[in-house]
Design a protein that fits this description.
With 206 residues, the protein is α/β, with parallel strands linked by helices. It has one domain: Rossmann fold, CATH 3.40.50. The protein contains six helices and twelve strands. Mean pLDDT is 90; it is low at 29-34.
Length: 206
């Protein structure tokens, strides 16, 4: 018997008479005291979490979405963003760069920015998930340009990661975004834009 087998045998013997414990999983939407967002309001909790990640977030209604998107692009100086196929027409600016034929890495690197939708968003973690579906495009579109403007519908926001997983197809290439791309070295010097966009801006449409 190896050392590993001996240790495992001792563990099994020690817990053999212990009662089985039932796993309890609770996925509520109410944030703990002091956290942003009112209990039961995943939109406000999501917006607060996104802002915590140093991303810019706007919450608007359907009628105001186009104006908020246009204003965000104008502030950034983006006159012709890359727009994937399938983005709703009311969100799409008059001038844009289509990914057809597919743009190369060099073209995307020189692009002013990219405007997309998303597959799902998670209130508790402030995470946006893209699955290359309509209005999201290829993974390269949101990993290479330095600026990403993402539009999230309120109905796409779920409370917890487990709920997001239920909506996603694991066979698809999934991109999980929690704020602008950032990393830090051993001295905790933060560097942004290493693995993806340096700037993330999010428009939440109620």
């Amino acid at each position: 018997m190896t050392s590993r087998e001996l240790i495992l045998a001792r563990i099994r013997a020690a817990v053999a008479s212990a009662p089985e414990a039932e796993a309890v999983r609770a996925h509520g939407v109410s944030p703990p005291a002091g956290e942003p967002g009112e209990p039961g309001d995943p939109v406000e909790l999501f917006a607060g979490r996104v802002a915590d990640y140093r991303a810019t977030v706007h919450v608007t209604d359907g009628d105001g979405a186009a104006g908020v998107i246009a204003a965000a692009l104008a502030r950034r100086g983006v006159s012709r963003p890359v727009v994937p196929d399938g983005l709703p027409g009311e969100w799409t600016p008059a001038e844009f760069v289509a990914d057809d034929p597919p743009l190369g890495a060099g073209e995307l690197d020189r692009a002013e920015g990219v405007l997309t939708g998303c597959a799902v968003a998670i209130a508790r973690t402030g995470t946006i998930v893209l699955d290359t579906g309509p209005g999201q495009g290829r993974r390269m579109l949101t990993l290479v340009p330095d600026y990403h403007l993402c539009v999230v519908r309120a109905g796409q926001i779920v409370a917890e990661v487990a709920e997001a997983l239920e909506r996603l197809d694991p066979a698809l290439p999934l991109t999980w975004i929690s704020g602008p791309s950032a990393t830090s070295d051993i001295e905790l010097n933060r560097v942004e834009g290493v693995h993806g966009p340096r700037t993330l801006e999010v428009v939440v449409v109620r």
